[in-house]
Amino acid sequence: MEKMYLKVEDAAQVLKLMGDKTRLSIMRFVNVDECCVCELVELLGLSQPAISQHLRKLKDAKLLNEQRKGHWVFYSINKEHPAIEVVQGILDALPNGKQELEELSNNNLRIICD
Amino acid sequence: MEKMYLKVEDAAQVLKLMGDKTRLSIMRFVNVDECCVCELVELLGLSQPAISQHLRKLKDAKLLNEQRKGHWVFYSINKEHPAIEVVQGILDALPNGKQELEELSNNNLRIICD
DNA sequence: TTATTATATAAGCAAATACGAATATAAGGT
DNA sequence: ACCTTATATTCGTATTTGCTTATATAATAA
Fold first, then answer.
1. B60 lies in a domain?
2. Per residue in B12-32, pLDDT tens?
3. Is B90 in the A-facing interface, judged by CB distances under 8 Å?
4. What are the DSSP E strand ranges found in B8-114?
5. Does residue A94 fall inside a structural domain?
6. In this complex, do A19 and B15 lie within 8 Å of one another by their Cβ atoms?
7. Closest amino acid to nucleotide C21 (CA–C1')
8. Based on the structure, what is the number of domains in chain A?
9. Can you tell me the distance from the alpha carbon of B104 to that of B100, in angstroms, rounded to the nearest whole number?
10. CB contact under 8 A, B21 and A12
């Protein structure tokens, strides 16, 4: 199998999106488990519109999948993204969000749907 | 050896810097071989001040080393950077700059100092 | 010294960005 | 139908960004 290269412009777009600490942490969290907006608001300490706007950019770039479950909209990492290996390489170099998500659980702030 | 994680803020800074197609290509080129400013100007088709300003940002972030040789200032990738593995992972996913640098050579536009 | 070449810096500006406030939409419960 | 909760969108704004133009600095050669 021949190695596929990303286009420089496409890679730059992904890196620019991940080059913001809020969005980078969103990716850290959804890399552990899908998250709904209110969980990310809680985890990141920003306003709901701010989080929604970041999520929209990540979704527009196909880095995230969106799935509504009742009241909530859950976001998950898109493992089919052409740059997924680069994305995972980046996230692997960071402390993942597992611990923070567990703290959310302990405070009964996690949303469980199914 | 215990795995060292980057801080989210530090990683975000590196990604933001690489999230610009001009700077990302600068990194592609210096990853092949050290380059002077005028070579990068030629390769990237931007003004000398524009390139200088991009180089300064990369240098300030310690992603690049600077070395003067006579008239010229050569920039090379800093292999000691804490995020170097992430950086290399990104560059490995891109077509490297070898071919474009060879074309420069063929047009006698490469600067050879030592 | 003066001229030339390579690079850096400063100033100004248009475009992009990240945010909050206010408002709109969507879903479920009463 | 109404209310509440979760999310999205719109708008205004302060900040940042990437570039150009003009100028300054650094190194070498004549």
1. yes
2. 999 999 999 999 999 999 999
3. yes
4. 35-36, 64-69, 72-77
5. yes
6. yes
7. A49
8. 1
9. 6
10. yes
Structure tokens at A58: 């990540």
- Its domain, for residue B60, covers 8-106
Q: Is residue B52 part of a domain?
A: yes
Domain at A15, CATH number: 1.10.10.10
Report how far Cα B5 is from the mean position of its chain's Cα atoms: 23
How far is B78 from A85, CA to CA, in rounded Å? 23
CA distance to A70, A97, B74, per residue, from A110 (Å): 15, 14, 52
How many CB atoms lie under 10 A from the CB of residue B14? 26
DSSP character at residue A68: E
Residue B93, in any domain of the structure: yes
Structure tokens at A37: 């907006």
Residue B19 to chain A, least CA–CA distance (Å): 4
B24–chain A Cβ distance below 8 A for any pair: yes
A93: closest CA among B6, B17, B90, B15? B6
CA B108 to chain centre: 21
Structure token digits, residue A13: 């777009």
| Average pLDDT score, chain A | 96
- Distance between CA A58 and CA A68 in Å, rounded? 16
Contact A95 B5 (CB under 8 A): yes
pLDDT score of A3: 81
